[in-house]
Design a protein that fits this description.
With 527 residues, this protein is α+β, with helices and mostly antiparallel strands. It is 36% helix and 18% strand. It contains 16 helices and 16 strands. The strands form four sheets. Strands 9-16-15-12-10-11 form a six-stranded mixed sheet, covered by helices on one side. The protein has a five-stranded mixed sheet with strand order 5-6-7-2-13, sandwiched between helices. A three-stranded antiparallel sheet has the order 1-4-3. Helix 13 crosses helix 14. The longest helix is centred in the middle third of the chain and has 23 residues. The relative contact order is 0.15. The N terminus is likely disordered.
Length: 527
């Protein structure tokens, strides 16, 4: 059995810290809810299945954890509200409706729950288990681990012991990141440019923040594996090269596509948790043979693997908290396991249950399994029309089919769309539906004169946290290399020295010394 969380709290991982900050700034929500649905047909022992859910939580204490800031450090602590594990008679209800309902329920990183299990009876011998977890404690590979654990517990088998605790894994990862940070900064210098302009059919705006989403589902060609082998690349690398080729055809120059890279090592392969880092993968302009271009994308992606544990915001400046690093992103997960076996019943899993949200403008999700390669384009309907997304899906499929049929084809001979001529769409950084995004910044609300008495002390705190001898009062925190940890440390030091509890919003609205000092003045005036 896995060890439980230590009482004083293990330190959260860098990825968890970043996600916690994003939630605190109001930029997360449902986009971080990860649903999984298991249909069970046959004479199910409901009590036995509920007990299996409890066993999995005991084996993976991440599912019963919360995140709390203590003296500038975000730590994992036992959640005040444990994961609800419940049964409900839902005879006559549609499974999709139940998944949507469960996904919409609140998950609270501060108090819990961060996960929930609900077993629904749809008919006497037809049941549906819906599991939803916050992404901060659950990633794509966790789905396989969860389902295997549930099936084993239902069969009466013990949970396998994990080789190390999550806290130990975080400590080792943090040490590796510290060693790589300098090289990562050098690697990304010249590679990373925070460009948010974009050309896509049906596009009216650009978003790198969470919003209600829609989706277009399709299946990738079955013979992609053969073509990828001929090119000397993986299916993931081939698909990523195709996405880059398509973006270039639309008229995007030097577009970076961010990808979700697993940070798991051998000792964490059995852990439920967050072991993923989003990083950009730039590519040269597609030209010559597509196979050569795919190998160039492969080389760039594999060069990135060395730094897959280093959050981009730790290596470069100017990356503000957001749910998507770039407007277009890709996640590709290869499942190598078979379907779960629950004794006495037939089980089938919806590995791509949709949370009805999107983290940016357009996200391609791919699950590569033994029975085929399923794909979904998730999009923000506020900035990209459904017909536009359907066109992207059609163009991508046509390109992949052509590449599968002729792996040695020249890019110029492939079926590519014409450039989008409606003009380049620039981003909007305001949070959709958030009236605070329309309000003036703290410095404008409070006025420069109000901030003046607090500028020296706030400036001293910034210099300590950022390790800089001089910082201008109007220099942007993120342009100075600040990141989620910097925000947490500044808030903790302001609380300790100035007896003021800053909100995270001020770092979204006005991340400068002047902005923070003005907010301190406003809060003290209201006290």
């Amino acid at each position: 059995m896995s060890p439980t969380l230590i009482g004083e709290g293990e330190q959260a991982s860098l990825a968890q810290h970043g996600m916690w900050i994003t939630e605190q700034m109001g930029c997360g929500g449902r986009v971080y809810h990860m649903p999984l649905a298991i249909r069970l047909d046959g004479p199910l022992d409901v009590d036995r299945l509920l007990a299996a859910c409890h066993d999995v939580v005991r084996a993976h204490p991440q599912l019963a954890a919360a995140l709390a800031e203590r003296d500038g450090v975000v730590r994992l602590v036992p959640a005040a509200v444990p994961p609800p594990i419940a049964f409900e008679d839902a005879s006559g209800r549609e499974p999709g409706e139940l998944v949507d309902r469960e996904t919409s329920l609140a998950l609270d990183l501060g108090t819990g729950p961060v996960a929930r299990f609900t077993v629904f009876r749809l008919a006497p011998e037809r049941h549906l288990l819906v599991f939803v977890a916050h992404h901060a404690v659950f990633d794509g590979m966790s789905k396989d681990i969860l389902v295997r654990g549930l099936a084993a517990a239902y069969a009466g088998l013990p949970s396998p012991a994990l080789p190390l605790t999550y806290g130990e894994a975080v400590e080792r990862e943090s040490a590796r990141v510290a060693e790589l940070l300098g090289d990562a900064a050098e690697f990304w210098h010249g590679r990373w440019s925070d460009r948010q302009d974009l050309r896509l059919p049906g596009l009216s705006g650009v978003s790198i923040r969470a919003a209600a989403g829609d989706a277009v589902d399709f299946a990738l060609p079955a013979d992609l594996a053969v073509a990828a082998d001929k090119m000397g690349v993986t299916r993931f690398e081939l698909v990523l090269a195709a996405v880059h080729t398509l973006l270039a055809a639309y008229g995007n120059e030097d577009a970076a596509v961010s990808v979700d890279l697993s940070t798991r090592i051998e000792e964490t392969r059995g852990h439920i948790g967050l072991f993923v880092n989003e990083l950009p993968v730039p590519a040269p302009a597609p030209a010559g043979r597509f196979a050569e271009f795919a190998r160039a994308v492969r080389d760039e992606l594999r060069a990135t693997y060395r730094f897959r544990e280093v959050p981009l915001a730790r290596a470069v400046g100017g990356v503000s908290p957001r749910t998507a690093l770039t407007p277009v992103s890709v996640s590709y997960r290869r499942r190598d396991g078979s379907e779960p076996e629950f004794p006495g019943v037939e089980a089938s899993v919806d590995w791509m249950a949709f949370n009805q949200a999107v983290r940016g403008t357009l996200h391609l999700q791919v699950v590569d399994a033994q029975d085929g390669v399923a794909a979904r384009l998730q999009f923000n309907p506020l900035v990209l029309s459904r017909s536009g997304c359907e066109s992207v899906a059609e163009h991508l499929l046509a390109l992949l089919r052509a590449v599968a049929a002729a792996p040695d084809a020249d890019v110029a001979d492939l079926p590519l769309p014409s450039p989008v001529v409606d003009g380049v769409v620039e981003p909007s950084f305001a949070r959709a539906g958030d009236v605070r995004a329309e309000e003036p910044s703290p410095s404008a609300r409070g006025g420069a004169a109000d901030a003046a008495p607090y500028l020296p002390e706030v400036g001293e705190i910034w210099r300590e946290v950022l390790g800089m001898p001089e910082i201008g009062p109007d220099e942007d925190l993120f342009d100075l290399g600040g990141h989620s940890l910097s925000i947490t440390q500044i808030i903790a030091k302001v609380r300790e020295r100035m007896d003021v509890e800053l909100s995270f919003d001020v770092f979204f609205d006005d991340p400068t010394i002047t902005g923070i000092a003005a907010e301190v003045a406003r809060l003290r005036e209201e006290a």
